[in-house]
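Colleagues,

Please find the record for the two-part complex below.
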Amino acid sequence: MELLYAMTLGVLTTCGVYLLLRARTFTVILGLTLLSHAVNLYLFASGRLVAGAPAIVGLTDRSADPLPQALVLTAIVIGFAMTAFVVVLALKAAVELRNDHVDGENPDEDRL
Amino acid sequence: MNHALILPILLPLITGASLLLLYRLPFGVQRLVGLASTLGLVGLGAWALVAAGGGEYRLYHAGDWPAPFGIVLILDRLSALMLALTALLGLACLLYASRGIDRRGAHFHALFQFQLAGLNGAFLTGDLFNLFVFFEILLIASYALLLHGGGRARSRAGLHYVIINLVGSALFLIALGTLYGLTGTLNMADLALEVAAAPPGDAPLLAAASMVLLVVFGIKAAILPLLFWLPRAYSASSAPVAALFAIMTKVGIYAILRVFLLVFGLGEAPVNAAAWQWLWPLALLTLALGGVGVLGSDSLRTLTAYLVIISVGTLLATLSLVTPATLGAALFYLIHSTGMAAAFFLLADLLGQQREEGYDRFSVEAPMGHRALLGGLFFLAAIAAVGLPPFGGFVSKVWILQASADEPRGLWLWALLLAAALLTLIAVSRTGSRWFWRPGPATAPRPLDRGCLAVVCALVALNGVLAALGEPVMGYLALTAEQLLTPEAYIAAMLPETLALAPEVSP
């Protein structure tokens, strides 16, 4: 399980960073989303991966660490709100600047 | 339990939320509510300064959960200082905005209160994850404030600002996950003990986590490779918002101080040594770049943004020498530079409105109304910003130079600090002569807003007061520096039992 988890994290982070470095706002936002997924999974794993154990002390012999679950919930909520905000901002910028380049203008295209 | 300590967070939070709900109220009432809350914060800031002045720590356990399990707020001299500074700056910016700029978009006052709540929370919290949450609160409020008023330049600058800060948040969480995975706690005092007692095998991972945190705080503080978002964002936002943002880079510096002096500062081979080694050259380069940027700016707002960068470079270079004298000097400079950057952003707007064309651009030569009055004000503000007597900047720079003279490498700081001051002096005197001397008097001067003028005058005068009160302020700051350099006292206040159980951990 650890290997699969680590590989998922690696793939998500790699794709996220690659997309983040693109020049169009839409791909950048996709990259941010993938990166925040990777970060959430990473945060979740910081309490160690245990299967079949509830996050309540005393129910069974083993229990999962509840704190990373609470942290990741907070991080998901914040990340979701931020993604929504940046999507709206990108749309606003695309309408106002008449293109979706992250710098507001594409140096390779002739300006009108 | 005394609940006063959570008021600096609750008061603006509740005010902001009720302003959102009651958005149909007449605009004047909204302004008054916002101003009343900010005035309350000034009072709370003064209370905090007095309460922390004795040197004891004040704690607030949310829900009465004991540390390190619950959420803890902690007030020491540094937090009190930052609270008071934020409140005063917020009041000045809000008064300026209330002269009309707050009408240019929706919900200005609510956003402003949320921003203050996030700032105060970041200064008070004793928990690293809470610091992340308050960072997000102040950031999301700042995204909206930056875009307030609309316009193409703001959308463009806002996109960069938002995306780089979102990446910063992701890195912050990675560092937190690593620290929690290694130590099993996020309470700063508990974390300091765990980090000091960590097995040697964990040292590389701890060092990596500390470096990721340094990058995150470096983005907030705008240190050299991570500062290119700042000039555009600050010069695109409206004047009162840019003036409030003068404290935002200081939040990054506060976080660096708090985390690297406390969490990574204990043990035989403290993790923070590497951080200071990186900070010193980067801060000096930031300072140099700020000096060049000031000279090459094309508008007064961009020039002020580079003044902010100079102040960040000076502060971090002074801090990374880590002696009691340099810490105290740096904190004095922090107060001075925050106030002057805010005053300059507001002044740029005040002057820009009086110019017949070009707003605050240097390339346009245009007559200016009320030349004598505004010219005099600009002259005084420029003297204060460059750091010439009789203003607070002079005292702070002399103290920095004196404190760093004892260190062999302090010579670098001397050279760059004085060179940057000279470049600033050239840039502002060029601005002054171009704007006030060369063009003739304005044919039909626009009416000058007395409220705005009074706010800028008050900020410049406060800088003078800072110099006049130099001695007591310096005494307070010297004690603050001493408190910062004894993290054991912080830990003892936060975790009275733990320290008694494990006395061998403290160095």
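The longest helix of chain B spans residues 152-183.

Comments are welcome before we finalize the supplementary table.
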